[in-house]
Amino acid sequence: MAKDALDPTRYPTFPPPETDPTTLASLSTYLVMIAVEEYERERDIVIKTMEDRVYALSAYNNKLDTDAEQEIEAVREGFNHNLAVLQTLLFPPLSYSSSLPSPTPTPAPHHSPSSPQPLQSSSSYTLLPQIITHLSREYTTVVPASYSYLTSKLDLDSGRAPKILIPGAGLGRLAYEVLKKLPNATVELNEFSVPMATALSRIIHNGLTVDIFSHVQSSATVGEVSSKNRLQKVQVSVLPLPQNSQLSLTTGDFVTCYSTPLNTNNAYDYILTSYILDAVPNIIEMILIIKKLALNSRSQNIKTAWCNYGPLHWHNGVELKLSVDEIKDILTKEGFVIDEWEIVVGEAYRNDVDEAMFMTDELYNCLKFCVTLDDSKEFEDDIISRIEEGRRQIKEKKDLEIVNANEDDPEEEEESTMRIEEL
Ligand SMILES: C[S@@+](CC[C@H](N)C(=O)[O-])C[C@H]1O[C@@H](n2cnc3c(N)ncnc32)[C@H](O)[C@@H]1O
């Protein structure tokens, strides 16, 4: 095991890095199948909600509404159409591998997954809405504030082709925006969710021309303004990125992927994070790994600017939820100089149209910042051992909590002893 990589025997990862490629391939297939099943479940919930509505309205009107019954069928067909789109995007899934990020423009999916916890879920639920809001013609004419801020930080006149890392790349819209401004940039994407990474890779390489029923999915879950919108379709038409784009992709948890030994390719002029800080299991670890990448870049005379735009509303399953000032404090302590720091109020992530389609809207207060490592300071590269130590202490605390809970509840303890004996 390389000296500066996290030791998986002490901190079990998911799946263990030693897992053989066949197992990893079936794991990705499994994750993608779960994603499709989640979407099927979503369809069944929506259909059930619609049926309940029809029964209630029929009872109220004292006659069965046959039009409504037909509409339910049409919504079901809309879902099935969307499912077929999902399946074309997701099969065959990208397979995990454990190589380092490729410097070549070919996709080089790799995985050396997260230790704290896998957060793979919700991708099927958000994938199609995200395709619509990030990649469809209606929306791509509007560049969301996050991408315009992050691309405004790129130096277009430096005279050299910069290297840019985008952790948590989602569907890659930021990469499109970066390459629009700097076609000769080398862009490295990282994405944790296998379904998302698979769709991303497919869209970026093959483009996408497809109709999606944009509203069926939301029709049962958020208040609709007009029931007529349920069967609305959106045409998504995305050109593939030009063959000569310098683009690569790493698939896996950001911290784990970049805690492996770094090489000369891991030197970045920019690290751009958009709507991701509140999605990673442990933001302190993310800050530390970005510092490690900045130090590695510095050793090759490249000064990394880390620019961020996004909320801190903390996704489900994220255990460490810091406040904005706590994050600023950690950045400063780690030797980052704050070049820009601002909270933007009420930003839309998915929905940039003026007309209200639903009675709920997603608006976020976003933290935007740009930081660089202090040139005047020397830093020790002890980051991996600090992450390990942090994990060790957290684990120790959790183990102690379990012991204390068992002591409080002797029956539970007895039961767990019995379970151990049975084994
Ligand atoms: C809200 S989306 C933002 C996507 C994209 N950056 C954008 O601005 O549209 C967050 C993305 O981060 C990914 N993600 C979450 N945790 C991650 C991790 N630990 N490592 C890498 N990517 C992660 C999610 O799968 C998801 O695609």
UniProtKB/TrEMBL annotation:
EC category name: transferase
Keyword DNA-binding: no
InterPro entries hit by this protein: CARME, SAM-dependent_MTases_sf
Domain of life (superkingdom): Eukaryota
Tagged with keyword Electron transport: no
GO molecular function annotation: carnosine N-methyltransferase activity
GO biological process, one term: methylation
Sequence segments annotated as region (Disordered): 1-20, 100-122, 402-423
Keywords on record: Methyltransferase, S-adenosyl-L-methionine, Transferase
Transmembrane segment boundaries: none
Similarity comment: family membership: Belongs to the carnosine N-methyltransferase family.
Protein known as: carnosine N-methyltransferase
Naturally occurring in which organism (per UniProt): Triparma laevis f. longispina
Lineage, top ranks: Eukaryota, Sar, Stramenopiles, Ochrophyta, Bolidophyceae
